Amino acid sequence: QKEVEQNSGPLSVPEGAIASLNCTYSDRGSQSFFWYRQYSGKSPELIMFIYSNGDKEDGRFTAQLNKASQYVSLLIRDSQPSDSATYLCAVKNQAGTALIFGKGTTLSVSS
Amino acid sequence: GAVVSQHPSRVICKSGTSVKIECRSLDFQATTMFWYRQFPKQSLMLMATSNEGSKATYEQGVEKDKFLINHASLTLSTLTVTSAHPEDSSFYICSARDSWGAGGNEQFFGPGTRLTVL
Q1: Which run of H or E residues covers position B93?
Q2: Residue B81: how many CB atoms within 10 A of its CB?
Q3: How do residues B44-64 score in pLDDT, each as one tens digit?
Q4: Does B108 contact A at CB distance below 8 Å?
């Protein structure tokens, strides 16, 4: 069973700080990586996806991928209370047909 | 962005009854839809992959005779939980992949259906 691992948290950061969320995956053949945000009782919403090693920036969010280390992270700059949610890391399976999700990291941003 | 709807959003039923959940892609065609289940404090677990016009592919451990999936059109997939029991109580979420979207890699999630079996 291919796995995606995340620290469940909670990760607590003050407003304005940088939140760093980490994810490791077991399938070395994985090529596509996604970060979703899920508010309590709601379904996930896509924040970013990344395919290539290195950094990808979108507004306050930066995804970082290191395939050699099988590690993907999400940085949130200038964290806001509205960023408080569970962040799910997802990896596309080798067949490229479905996503495998981690258990998610709960982020709490205090004002 | 693409919109996926689910109906109903919440359902409470008695043990032994069957419940049908609909998943619709509203503004795009989805040849593939996915059904997930999420228990409290747990991750999304893929139950099955639904392809339009063909039989669904179920993940290991998911009973295909209990969770019936029909994907009759490019915009609609249904999940029927047959003879539901309290242990089937969960948050069921569908997602759809835009067949013609850029890169074809994004999955758009529906709002989820909260099923409670008494």
Answers
A1: strand B90-97
A2: 24
A3: 999 999 988 888 999 999 999
A4: yes
